[in-house]
Amino acid sequence: MKIQKPSRIRHSYTQNIIAPPSEVFPLMCPVREADWVPGWSAGLVLSDSGVAEHDCMFTTPDGDSEAIWIITRHDAESFETEMYKVAPGKTVGHIEIKVRAEGDTDSKVEIAYAFTALSEEGEAFLETFTQAWFDSFMQMWQAAMNHYLATGECVSVKG
Hints:
The chain is of the alpha+beta class. The protein is built from 4 helices and 7 strands. The protein has one domain (8-151): 2-Layer Sandwich (Alpha-D-Glucose-1,6-Bisphosphate, Chain A, domain 4).
């Protein structure tokens, strides 16, 4: 048995979204993210309801393999969800999302991602998972969601 301290990095960000929590929270879903996140692609989605729920599981591409996501908490009343993302042999991620009302019409979305390395490949990933990278990712996510909420369309990817 090998026991060691984990190599782990956690970053958080608060987004400003132009809709109330009741409209924002349902978009935090492996199925609904395809509506507003450019290039989002969930593979298999295991869900009784067809959307995000407690114990929903889904897969996404992760390099040459697939990552497995497991929603461990999904509370539509408090607008909070937690999930784990397992990239086998690489990392385990813990994602926490809390949507809070900001006035009568807007939301603050608190998002935290923590990754723990499982291997040298995971350690290499942690080196790239900087606060600056995360902030940029969250700003893109915020812009994409606000665009979708304003227009009903996914932001087009320029390439």
